[in-house]
Design goal:
The protein is an all-alpha fold. It contains 10 helices and no strands. The protein has one domain.
């Protein structure tokens, strides 16, 4: 039964909202910009409205996975279903296991699991993005803040381990962005982006 909860969460996490919303506009988001199906690339390619919609829907996937885990009544399962949703978003079965970078879905997981940690991560993210206009830099900084905040706020050991896993996962997914940041070739976000 536990396995079914995890599989269900993976399948929910796999729903490629960025791909779907862009496709409605006649755009295969994988062929534009970074090729990523996440909110940032949708924002740049389709427009801010679509980008924000993808952000909200991807976050909802993460929160839904935690809710599913809690319904089982098994202590700690919500952490596993949360991770399953992140794996689904990063490696969606519906798109040949090529997905997003887990930031929005991770935010949804944190919203359901640890709101104070999400609040601090969002503050770090927004500060970094507003100062640099690099979404990837904000994402990496926010990810790094998660295990640190869980440690400082004295969360239980399973939560600290969860925070470390999420942080490592997010940073690994952003390695190409980190390389471009170092090389000075990473794209900056435009806050008045319009559809191409």
């Amino acid at each position: 039964m536990l396995f079914l909860y995890i599989i269900a969460s993976y399948l929910i996490g796999s729903i490629p909202f960025g791909f779907i919303l862009a496709k409605i506009k006649g755009i295969d988001i994988r062929q534009y910009g970074s090729g990523n199906i996440g909110a940032t690339n949708v924002w740049r390619t389709v427009g801010p409205g679509a980008g924000l919609a993808v952000l909200a829907l991807d976050a909802a996937k993460g929160a839904a996975a935690v809710f599913i885990g809690r319904q089982a009544g098994i202590e700690g399962l919500e952490l596993l279903t949360g991770i399953a949703a992140l794996v689904g978003h990063a490696f969606p079965i519906y798109l040949g296991f090529k997905g997003g970078k887990i930031i929005a879905t991770g935010a949804g997981v944190l919203l359901a699991l640890a709101p104070p940690v999400l609040l601090i991560a969002l503050t770090v993210f927004l500060t970094a993005v507003l100062l640099s206009r690099y979404v990837s830099l904000g994402s990496v900084c926010a990810a790094l803040s998660v295990p640190l905040t869980m440690f400082l706020l004295n969360y239980s050991l399973p939560y600290k381990i969860f925070g470390g896993i999420v942080c490592l996962f997010a940073v690994l997914k952003h390695i190409p962005n980190i390389k471009r940041l170092i090389q000075g070739t990473e794209s900056k976000i435009s806050f008045n982006a319009k559809k191409n």
